[in-house]
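Example record

The entry below shows one chain as it appears in the dataset: sequence first, then structure tokens.
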Amino acid sequence: MSLGPGNALTWLAFGDLHRLSLSLAKMLERDMGFPDISCLSPGKIIALLCPSSEELLITWLALVKSGYGVLLIAFVSPLYTIVFPNIL
């Protein structure tokens, strides 16, 4: 679930996630020179830094489908650290 145009909620089913991530994986392999899993040596890792979103999920799935390990780097909103300073 995410907010779409005009803050309307949009829903993605598992089939949607599969189709979108497979499409992105093919695009990465074709247009950006990312090798497919058959060409990989062990230890290929890509770091992702972005807020939690449907784009993050689709990109993570696409990279995993292409055979990459993915390091998810979360960043904390400054507002969160102001509101809850004792948690961090």
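Notes for this example: Residues 4 and 26 are 25 Å apart (CA to CA). The longest strand covers residues 45-49.
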